[in-house]
Amino acid sequence: KTCASVFSMGMFAPGFVFMAFQLGTNFSANPKAKVGGVSKAHLHWIIAAVLSFVGVVALIVLLNHPKSRVLLANADKELQEKEEQRLRDVNNGNTGASSDKGGEEDKDKPDESMKAVAKMIGAALVSIFASIFAIVAITTYFTKIDSDGTVGNAFLPVVLFYVKNSTDFLGRCFTLMPLCIKDQKVLAVSVAFRFLLVPLFFIYAVANIFTHDIFLLVLVAISGLTSGYINTCCFVVAGQYMRTPGLKSSGAALMNISFQAALIVSISFGAILSFATPSGGTGGGSVVNGTNSSGA
């Protein structure tokens, strides 16, 4: 759980680098202004490329470090020993002939196929998809919302992004404490309630029933906080069902597929909706869209 929490927090670290860059260079006021002969907009993407490269290299180095290999091998060994002990306990409880015990052991051995694992952690797969979709979809629409004048149209997308990023990170930090979400049923219910914030956000943003910056900031803050917490819980809860190294590999692959699929679908949804609705008169589109973290 601690490893999942720290890794999840680390995924959001680049977002704070962008925030510092934007605040330090007054990026939103004039993205085309040059810093050392390079425009801020180009420098923005250079930083993104460098951070992505460093992150990938760091991950490869960490995974292949001798200590990491020992930790991963020990974890797999521990999983295997626990599963073998569970099978022995099951067989010791059987009263059939000894010749039937081999068949009972095979019967109790978990199916490690992708299809079987998908059924086993189905709620976690749907939950991570829905939770990622919920936060990324609203983030892509920040540049289309009108301000009531409290923050101002020019700065509202930037402020919304900073609030979303900060509260999302805070939610991930909270997972270091004992979790409130410990099984797939509670996870599914939590995601269902958290998803209700999405239609609420778009009703506010698109219908223009009323305009209130503080309400919007609170709504985005709650979305970010719950997103960071629930996204991390999805991986922790799914991991509880991985009793063998084979199950762990299949489960990790499926969770990553669901995660990446949610990113693609949510970004596409937000882009389509953004193009289909009139502009709210804001001017910070390049700030938000360019700094949207894949950590979501």
Task: Map the helices and strands.
Blueprint: H1 2-10, H2 13-25, E1 34-35, E2 38-39, H3 40-64, H4 66-92, H5 101-108, H6 114-120, H7 122-139, H8 156-174, H9 184-195, H10 197-207, H11 213-239, H12 245-276, H13 285-290
Antiparallel strand pairs: 1-2
Helix pairs in contact: 2-3, 4-5, 7-9, 7-10, 7-11, 7-12, 8-11, 9-11, 10-11
Give the termini separation: 19 Å
The tally of strands reads: 2
| Helix and strand run | HHEEHHHHHHHHHHH
Structural class: mainly alpha
Write structural notes for this entry.
With 296 residues, this protein is mainly alpha-helical. Helix content is 72%, strand content 1%. The protein contains 13 helices and two strands. The protein has a two-stranded antiparallel ribbon with strand order 1-2. Helix 4 packs across helix 5. The two termini are 19 Å apart.
Provide tags for this entry.
single chain; 296 residues; mainly alpha; two-stranded antiparallel sheet; globular
Question: What would you say about this model in short?
Answer:
This protein is mostly helical. It contains 13 helices and two strands. Strand 1 (34-35) and strand 2 (38-39) form a beta hairpin.
